[in-house]
Design a protein that fits this description.
heterodimer; A: 281 residues; mainly alpha; 76% helix; globular; B: 284 residues; 0% strand
Chain lengths: 281, 284
C-alpha cells in the first residue's frame, strides 16, 4: 500500500491559488486554537499600551478628539504588526526552519502563501483592532461623528489592499535577507508609528514629512479615517479625503502589481544565488 | 565549584548573546539600527507633547515624560533579552535541549544572554538622553546630579528587571512562539502603570494601586530624582517619601517580585520538562 495518496486531479490557476491560501492559513488558525496565551498578550496587553498614550494626552490637557486619534491609531497598529511579524518576517523564520525551500519547490504561488499567512493571522488582528476600538471608545468616552459611512468603508478597504500589497513587496526582500530580516522588522515598528502618525495627526510632520509617510498606506488611511469620524478631523487632516482616496487607489495598484513582479524576480534571484536554503546562523 | 559553573554560565552566555546580537552586520549599521528605534519612540512622545503644548519644553511635565520614557527603554530591552532567549534557543537555533543537558546554571545563562540587549539598551538610553539635553531643553546639571543615588538606583533597577525577565522566560517555556516578543509586549503594557510618561495621579483611582505595587514605578522616580530633583518634586505622587524611603520600597517590591519570579520560573521549568516542551518547535 502506498504511503502517499495519488493525485487524481491537478490543480492550477485560481483554484490552486485559493487552495494555497487556505492551506497556509489553516495551520495558523489551528495553532491559535491550540495555545491561547496570545489572547492575553496580543489583545489585552496592547490595549494597555494604547491607554498609556491616551493618558499622556490627558496629562498635558489635549483636546478630547486626540484621545480618539490614539484609539483609532492604536487599532490600526494591529494590521501593521500582522504584516510585519506574521507575513514578512515569517518568511525569514520559514527559511530558518527549512520550509521556504519546500514552498518554492511546490507549484504554489508565493503571493498565495503570503496571503494565507496574512489571512491566518487576520482573526487575531481583527480581534485586536476591534477590542482596542470598542474598549478604547467605551473606557475613554470617545465620541464619533461619521461624515460619510461609504467613504469610510472605501478608505479602510483601500488601505488594507495597499497595505497588504506593500507587505508582500517587503516580504520579497526577506527571501534574500538572513538575520538582517529580524532586525529590519524590529526597525519598522516605532519609526513607522512615527512617520505614519499613529498617535497624532500626521499633518504635524510638515508637508514633505507627511508626503514621505504617505508611502505607507496606513498614513493616508488613518488620516482620512480621522477626518471622516471626528469633528476636528477635517481641520487636522493632511489632504482632502477625495485626494487620499485617489492616492490609496494608486498605491493599491502599484503595490499589488509590484509585489507580484518583485516576488517573482527576487525568488529567481534567490534561487540563482542559492539564498533560499542559506542559514547564516 | 558551583560558583565557577554559575560564573562560567553567565560569562559564556553574555559573550554568546553579544555575538548573536551584533555580528550580523558591520558596527556602523549596528549602531544605526540600535539608535533609530529608541529615537523614533521618543520622537512620538515629543511630537504628541509639542503639538498640544505648542512646544512648551520648559514645562516640568516634558522633562518628566522625556526622562521616564528614556529610562523605560531598559524595560523592554532587559525583559526581551532574557525571555526571547528561550524561543531563540528552542526554535531558532534548536540548542535549548543541549544547554539543559550541559553543566549550565539555566537562570544565570538566561541573565547572561540578556546582557547584550542591556548594552544596546544602555546605548539607546544614552543617545535619547543626550538628544533631550542638547536639543529639547531637558534640564540637566552635571554637578547637581546625585550620582551615587543614580548608579545605586540603576543597578537595583536592572537587577529587578532581570528577575522579571526570568519570570517571562518561565512563561515562554510553556507557551508557543507567537508573532510577538513577550518582553516587548509586557513592557508596553506596564508603560501604563509605572508613571513613566505621566504621573500616577492621571490614572483613575482604581488603577493606581497597580502602579504602586510595581518596583519599576519607584525605580523611575529615583532615577528622575537623582538627575533632576527639582522636576521630580513638582509632581505630588511621591513627595512625602524621601530618597531613602524610595530605595527601601524599591528593594522590598523587587524582593517580592524576585521571589515570585524565581518560584514561577521553577514551576514553569518543571512543567516544561515534564511535558516535553524543552525542544518543541511551534512554527505555525
Amino acid at each position: 500500500m502506498s504511503l502517499v495518496e495519488p493525485i487524481l486531479e491537478k490543480h492550477s490557476g485560481l483554484k490552486l491559488f485559493l487552495m494555497t491560501v487556505f492551506g497556509r492559513s489553516y495551520p495558523r488558525v489551528v495553532g491559535m486554537q491550540r495555545e491561547r496565551s496570545w489572547i492575553f498578550f496580543d489583545i489585552f496587553v496592547p490595549l494597555l499600551s494604547v491607554s498609556a498614550y491616551v493618558f499622556v494626552y490627558r496629562a498635558i490637557g489635549a483636546p478630547e478628539d486626540y484621545v480618539g486619534f490614539v484609539v483609532v491609531g492604536g487599532a490600526m497598529t494591529a494590521f501593521w504588526m500582522n504584516i510585519l511579524w506574521s507575513m514578512s518576517s515569517q518568511l525569514y523564520w520559514e527559511k530558518e526552519q527549512g520550509n521556504l525551500a519546500l514552498y518554492i519547490i511546490s507549484p504554489a504561488s508565493m503571493m498565495a502563501i503570503l496571503l494565507g499567512m496574512a489571512f491566518g493571522g487576520l482573526f487575531a488582528t481583527l480581534l485586536r483592532a476591534i477590542a482596542i476600538m470598542i474598549f478604547g471608545s467605551l473606557l475613554f468616552n470617545v465620541s464619533y461623528f461619521v461624515v460619510s459611512f461609504w467613504q469610510l468603508i472605501a478608505i479602510f478597504s483601500l488601505s488594507m489592499i495597499a497595505l497588504y500589497g506593500l507587505g508582500m513587496m517587503s516580504a520579497s526582500i526577506f527571501l534574500l535577507l538572513s538575520r538582517e530580516a529580524w532586525h529590519f522588522s524590529n526597525l519598522a515598528t516605532e519609526p513607522v508609528y512615527l512617520i505614519s502618525g499613529m498617535y497624532f495627526p500626521v499633518k504635524n510632520l510638515g508637508f514633505w514629512g507627511s508626503a514621505f509617510g504617505s508611502l505607507i498606506p496606513l498614513t493616508l488611511g488613518l488620516d482620512a479615517m480621522r477626518q471622516l469620524i471626528f469633528k476636528s478631523g477635517i481641520s487636522l487632516g493632511f489632504l482632502s479625503v477625495k485626494i487620499e482616496i485617489v492616492s490609496l487607489i494608486v498605491l493599491s495598484i502599484v503595490y499589488v502589481i509590484a509585489a507580484k513582479f518583485l516576488l517573482a524576480h527576487i525568488e529567481k534571484l534567490a534561487v540563482r544565488e542559492g539564498r533560499l536554503t542559506e542559514n547564516r546562523r | 565549584m558551583k560558583n565557577s559553573i554559575s560564573l562560567r554560565s553567565f560569562l559564556s552566555a553574555s559573550w554568546l548573546g553579544w555575538k548573536i546580537e551584533s555580528n550580523w552586520t558591520d558596527p556602523f549599521l549596528f549602531a544605526t539600527y540600535s539608535i533609530i528605534k529608541p529615537l523614533a519612540s521618543a520622537s512620538i512622545l515629543v511630537l504628541m507633547y509639542s503639538i498640544v503644548t505648542d512646544q512648551n519644553f520648559n514645562n516640568p511635565m516634558f522633562a518628566y515624560l522625556y526622562l521616564g520614557n528614556a529610562f523605560y527603554q531598559y524595560v523592554p530591552a532587559v525583559l526581551s533579552g532574557i525571555s526571547w532567549t528561550i524561543i531563540d534557543d528552542r526554535e531558532h537555533y534548536r540548542t535549548l535541549k543541549y544547554i539543559y543537558i550541559a553543566p549550565v546554571n539555566i537562570p544565570l545563562y538566561l541573565f547572561g544572554r540578556g546582557v547584550a540587549k542591556f548594552i544596546t539598551g544602555s546605548f539607546a538610553v544614552l543617545i535619547t538622553l543626550l538628544a533631550g539635553f542638547l536639543f529639547l531643553k531637558v534640564p540637566f546639571d552635571f554637578q547637581q546630579t546625585n550620582w551615587p543615588l543614580f548608579f545605586l538606583s540603576l543597578i537595583l533597577g536592572i537587577l529587578m528587571l532581570a528577575l522579571l525577565g526570568l519570570l517571562l522566560a518561565g512563561i515562554t517555556l510553556v507557551t508557543a512562539r507567537h508573532s510577538y516578543y513577550i518582553g516587548d509586549v509586557v513592557a508596553s503594557g506596564l508603560f501604563l502603570f509605572t508613571g513613566a510618561i505621566f504621573p500616577l495621579e492621571v490614572l483613575p483611582v482604581w488603577l493606581r494601586p497597580v502602579g504602586y505595587a510595581l518596583p519599576i514605578t519607584y525605580w523611575l522616580e529615583l532615577l528622575r530624582r537623582s538627575l533632576v530633583g527639582n522636576i521630580a518634586k513638582a509632581f505630588p505622587t511621591f513627595t512625602s517619601m524621601s530618597n531613602f524611603d524610595l530605595i527601601l520600597v524599591l528593594l522590598l517590591t523587587s524582593l517580592i517580585a524576585g521571589l515570585i519570579a524565581i518560584f514561577l520560573f521553577n514551576k514553569c521549568n518543571h512543567s516544561a520538562r515534564e511535558r516535553g516542551l524543552i525542544d518543541i518547535s511551534t512554527n505555525y
